[in-house]
Amino acid sequence: MTVLIRDLRPSDPADAEAVVGVRRAALPFMVTTPAGVAHELAGAPAAKRYRLLLAETPDGRAVGTAQLGLAYDSPEPGQSFVNVLVDPAHRGLGAGTALVRAAEEHLAAAGARASYSWVLDGPAHRAFAERHGYRPGRSAHFLRLDLTAAVLPPLPAGLPAGVELRPGSAFAADPRPLFEADAEATADEPGDVPAELDDYEEWLADVWHDPTLDHGLTTVVLVDGRVAAFSAARTDGATRYSSAMTGTLRAHRGRGLAKLAKTDSLHRARAAGYTEAFTGNDAGNGPMLAINDWFGYGICATETRYTRKLGATR
Description:
By secondary structure, this protein is an alpha+beta fold.
């Protein structure tokens, strides 16, 4: 059967719904919504050269999707990414191969020299990546916590002197302190492609205004009135909650502030009716894996970041 590849149409709500359908079928551990998908395109900086592709059967059924673009915020030029997902019910039609080829053509034309892709840790997924010339790098885990059954650690009866908890929504008038905290935490994240957040306006458009970012359930820890740690929350507005980033500024590490932020956010998420909590950690990020184990999260899937030099023989 012929599979057709095309760009997502930002003006067509059905396209965003189609992407969400494929993502939920292929990666049920991620929080995704139609509004969030539409924002990915609208909020992406021009330098990212971001595209969302759909793979369709001739009768218009969406069977796969790919997100791709340049790692424009990396200090190492020429880096790019392509993440391909195919609905498990429609594998074997050639959608994955067609999406990879279309994505790599776009990235090479945009000047990319290497492409990275997250691949689920399963024989078929790994074999597919390796057939297309990708080689494995570091791994990461998806983790899940059942909020209906979890025994969450209690919040402390009192906070140390100078320590306060605030929701992210308290920064609505001026989110810059959260941008600065996010930039520092992101710079220290382990990964194959380092990232630098250095453009406040881009961060506002891409991160702060993302409709899946729940400002109310995001928790910020202040020490002497300044941001010291945070746990950013993303939700689907229904039952699924995800910790998008939990970080502590360097000057405040080792004091348990990340645990405090995440504890507060999880308690408020459960009180708001969310039943499943997800997060993701680099396999080498021992401190955050230990924190999530302490909360009761369990690994529900593992993926490996594969890379390929564009232009190299497959």
